[in-house]
UniProtKB/TrEMBL annotation:
A Pfam family hit: NUDIX
E.C. number(s) listed in UniProt: 3.6.1.22
One Gene Ontology cellular component annotation held by this UniProt entry: cytosol
Organism phylogeny: Bacteria, Pseudomonadati, Pseudomonadota, Alphaproteobacteria, Hyphomonadales
InterPro entries for this protein: NAD-cap_RNA_hydrolase_NudC, NADH_PPase-like_N, NudC-like_C, Nudix_hydrolase, NUDIX_hydrolase-like_dom_sf, NUDIX_hydrolase_CS, NUDIX_hydrolase_dom, Znr_NADH_PPase
SUPFAM superfamilies named in the record: Nudix
Alphabetized GO MF terms: metal ion binding; NADH pyrophosphatase activity; RNA NAD-cap (NMN-forming) hydrolase activity
UniProt catalytic activity: a 5'-end NAD(+)-phospho-ribonucleoside in mRNA + H2O = a 5'-end phospho-adenosine-phospho-ribonucleoside in mRNA + beta-nicotinamide D-ribonucleotide + 2 H(+)
Organism of origin: Henriciella algicola
Residues covered by the Nudix hydrolase domain: 168-294
Stated name of the protein: NAD(+) diphosphatase
GO biological process: NAD+ catabolic process; NADP+ catabolic process
Swiss-Prot/TrEMBL cofactor(s): Mg(2+); Zn(2+)
Length: 308
């Protein structure tokens, strides 16, 4: 059965702008674009986006240069009108209320912010967060150990000693729903809010395919056997914690006896399709699903809306 949705409609990945990567190496163009009267600049601090108090990003113009002189802007691309869009990481001691933009908004936890931003804003903020986190954790060259510098509008780091070039990487994560007949397998971790259940998930390891990694994770965490060759791809979602690509899958299970690895999960169990439908409708009295900004919600919804 064809999917009822696709990656273009998954939160954090929806409504992307033109990244215009050909401009990243043009220092003169970037400087001119950053100084344009119509430039759009979002601010982040320690991974938190600056949001208007009733929701949505605070957008600034060329005046942002006065707020953080010397900061290196990250070029995010061009919107549908050709307007350049940048992001700036503010220093840890920057205080909104003591600055020129006092009263405009506040830096907000990203998970909370996801529900308050438009689709395009969420995509931009997610991209900026992933890149800023990468720069924060990759200051030194992995080849020689010297400190590297930002390059190409924030999309590369270059070592000034050995000339090695370093590019941001995305970690592939399989997030999957094992199914058998009219039931699906969900698990929960001890740290989660009481009553929340979700799909199993895990990082893909070197030397294995996406399908093999997904089947391995289901078996390791819950003891359920799945045939990698029968894996069904659904959609994916960029996840900036710090920089993953969550790849949604459905795997037909070949066994149903659960054996939970307590190092990975608190518990796991099978749920009927009717139960999942009630969960998604908010009508289940014992459990709830991840929120709609999480790809797990959409995986569960995709399966629940299918015929038995």
């Amino acid at each position: 059965m064809a999917n009822t949705t696709n990656s273009d409609f998954i939160p954090l990945g929806a409504r992307p702008i033109d990244r215009a990567g050909h401009h990243r190496t043009d220092a003169d163009w970037l400087a001119s674009a950053y100084a344009r009267d119509d430039v759009l600049v979002l601010l982040m601090q320690g991974g938190l986006p600056l949001l208007v108090r009733d929701g949505g990003l605070v957008w600034l113009g060329p005046e942002v240069a006065k707020l953080a002189p010397g900061s290196e802007p990250l070029f995010l691309g061009l919107d549908k009108n050709g307007t350049p869009v940048f992001a700036v990481e503010m220093p840890g001691d920057f205080d909104v209320e003591a600055s020129l933009i006092a009263g405009t908004g506040e830096f907000t936890d990203f998970r909370q912010a996801m529900a308050l931003m438009s689709e395009m804003e969420a995509n931009l903020a997610s991209t900026a967060r992933s890149l800023f986190e990468w720069h924060r954790s990759h200051r030194f060259c992995s080849r020689c150990g010297a400190e590297s510098v930002r390059a190409e509008a924030g999309w590369k780091r270059a070592c000034t000693e050995c000339t090695a070039e370093h590019f941001p990487r995305t970690d592939p994560v399989a997030i999957m729903l094992a199914v058998k007949g009219d039931k699906c397998l969900l698990g929960r971790q001890k740290m989660w809010p009481k009553g929340m259940w979700s799909c199993l998930a895990g990082f893909i390891e070197p030397g294995e395919t996406l399908e093999q990694g997904a089947a391995r994770e289901v078996h390791e965490e819950a003891g359920i056997h799945c045939d990698p060759a029968k894996t069904e791809y659904l959609f994916c979602q960029p996840w900036p914690f710090p920089s993953s690509l969550m790849i949604g899958l459905i795997l037909p299970a070949e066994s149903d006896e659960i054996a939970v690895d307590k190092n990975e999960l608190e518990t796991a169990r099978w749920f009927s399709r009717d139960e999942i439908r009630r969960v998604l409708a908010g009508e289940h009295d014992e459990m709830f699903a991840p929120p709609p900004f999480a790809v797990a919600h959409h995986i569960m919804k995709e399966w629940a809306e299918r015929e038995s």
